[in-house]
Amino acid sequence: MVKANALENRRIISTTLFRYLLHEMLFTFLICFAFFFFIFFCNQILLLAKEVLEKRVPFHQVALLILFSLPTIIAMSAPFASLVGTLMTVGRLTSDNEVLVMLSSGLSYKIIFFPAIMMGIIISLLSFFTNDVLLPAGTVEYNKLLRRISVATPAIVLQANSVKRFRNTVIVTGGVTGNVIHNLLILDKTQDGERRIIMANKAELKDGGREGLSLNLEGAFVQSSGEIAREDYDYAKSEFLQYWVSNEDIMVNQMSVTPREMSSRDVQTVIAQRISELNERENDRRIRLNNQAASMENILRAGPGSEDWNRRNNNASALQRELTAIENIKKDRTLRINMIEINRKFAVPFGAFFFVFLAVSIGLMAKKSGQTVGFIFGLLIAVLYWCMLFIGQAMGLRIGTPPFWSMWLPNILCFGVGIILAVIKVRK
């Protein structure tokens, strides 16, 4: 009896079948990874073609830009490749009756789930490493190279029908023909605090070398006003005006790094700093609120006969403003963005692990053309998953949905639906 149980246990966790299934899943994953990689890679090429290639940037610099953007492509491709690859593998095994043979031999469904779960864990860890280590490093190098290209190729900085923000300058462009910009609007602030509005019918963009960008304005109109007395302003017209944007301003404009381009540790540091800042601001506001409340209480106690009675409406308005300010601090958008991103950095890479349960359960239900059906279902689930992530992020930013649920709900649904389908399949 003991020997029979030992033999049964060995058959349930057959090492040969485990290696066979793991090999099949890995092979299909690599094919699906190449498919998704190609799609995202083409999308990146199209973006570069619009922003860089059409500006005649040297080929070796374009190649480096593509190289530095590869971690982003890999981080997006791996989880979806694990989903589609597992679906295709299990679907083929089911439609070819290989799963039926395994079950008839005394094996359980564990022999299918174990290698799939292992694949999911490995892919999740590698995807997280790519997303958390390689992506930030690649982004830093990408931005450095893009800044050098922007300085050397000024046409990249100013594009048609766009708004560009620099340190103290905002440039709004109309149509662009070659290096000529039509209907140009410039809003800037000088070192003396003077605010200016500059408009021109046409401007020619030139590379000023170390000085920066040169805009030769034709038919320019300039209106300037002081920082304090803004009602006093001057204006002037000129047939020709040369306007400069320094290289320093260009580089500062492109040095900002979004939370998505940081490591999880950096984002957590930013969150801690932001929470500390918000707590200080909230404490200051609460002190003001308590002072206003005490003042209002004194006015009400003194009654209508007091000199301060007429100020009660002003005090009430001040109380309301402080309460509103405290509520706005709690809804800080910057903190919310970082909280959503820190959850996203874990949810998306580890989606590969949660995909496994759904993929295996659906794959076991395939009857014919398992690989084709698995591929189609995998694409549909990937699109649905991406839409749910996008909707969750939008809801988190706009209506304040908790960041955890905004990013992790798609994974939880995949896991829950997969477990339910697996239980139904096993009990049949």
Short description:
This protein has 12 helices and 7 strands. It has helices spanning 2-12, 15-51, 59-95, 98-104, 110-152, 247-253, 264-302, 312-330, 333-347, 351-363, 370-398, 403-427, and strands at 163-165, 169-172, 176-177, 180-189, 195-207, 213-225, 233-245.
Describe this structure in words.
This protein is an alpha+beta fold and 428 residues long. It has twelve helices and seven strands. The chain has helices at 2-12, 15-51, 59-95, 98-104, 110-152, 247-253, 264-302, 312-330, 333-347, 351-363, 370-398, 403-427, and strands spanning 163-165, 169-172, 176-177, 180-189, 195-207, 213-225, 233-245. Strands 1, 2, 3, 4, 5, 6 and 7 form a seven-stranded antiparallel β-sheet that branches. A hairpin with a 2-residue loop joins strand 3 and strand 4 (180-189). Helix 3 runs antiparallel to helix 5 (110-152), helix 3 packs parallel to helix 10 and helix 7 packs antiparallel against helix 8 (312-330). The radius of gyration is 31 Å and the shape is flat. It starts with a helix and ends with a helix. Residues 1-11 have low confidence and may be disordered.
